[in-house]
Amino acid sequence: MTADPTSHWGWGRADRFPDLDTRTALAGQLQAVLGIPGLPPEAPVALADVTLPASRLAVPAGLAAFTTDDREARVRHTYGRSYPDLVRGFRGDFASAPDLVARPRTEDEVVAAVRWASDHDVAVIPYGGGTSVVGGVEPVVGPRYAGTLTVDLRALDRVLEVDPVSRLARIQAGATGPVLEQQLAAHGLTLRHFPQSFEYATLGGWIATRAGGHFATLTTHIDDLVASLRVVAPTGVAQTRRLPASGAGPAPDRLWIGSEGTLGLITEAWMRVRPRPRWRSSASARFTAWSAAVAAVRALAQSGLHPANCRLLDRREALLHGVSFDGTDVLLLGFESADHPTEAAMARALAIVADHGGACPDGTTHRDDGAAAGHDGQAGTWRQAFFDGPYLQTAMVSMGVIVDTFETAVTWDRFDALHAGVVRAVRDAIVAVTGQKGFVSCRFTHVYPDGPAPYYTFVAAGARGEEIARWQAIKAAASDALIALGATITHHHAVGRRHQPWYRQERPELFARALAGARRSLDPKGVLNPGVLLADDEA
Amino acid sequence: MTADPTSHWGWGRADRFPDLDTRTALAGQLQAVLGIPGLPPEAPVALADVTLPASRLAVPAGLAAFTTDDREARVRHTYGRSYPDLVRGFRGDFASAPDLVARPRTEDEVVAAVRWASDHDVAVIPYGGGTSVVGGVEPVVGPRYAGTLTVDLRALDRVLEVDPVSRLARIQAGATGPVLEQQLAAHGLTLRHFPQSFEYATLGGWIATRAGGHFATLTTHIDDLVASLRVVAPTGVAQTRRLPASGAGPAPDRLWIGSEGTLGLITEAWMRVRPRPRWRSSASARFTAWSAAVAAVRALAQSGLHPANCRLLDRREALLHGVSFDGTDVLLLGFESADHPTEAAMARALAIVADHGGACPDGTTHRDDGAAAGHDGQAGTWRQAFFDGPYLQTAMVSMGVIVDTFETAVTWDRFDALHAGVVRAVRDAIVAVTGQKGFVSCRFTHVYPDGPAPYYTFVAAGARGEEIARWQAIKAAASDALIALGATITHHHAVGRRHQPWYRQERPELFARALAGARRSLDPKGVLNPGVLLADDEA
Question: Could you report the predicted ipTM of this complex, rounded to two decimals?
Answer without folding.
Answer: 0.96
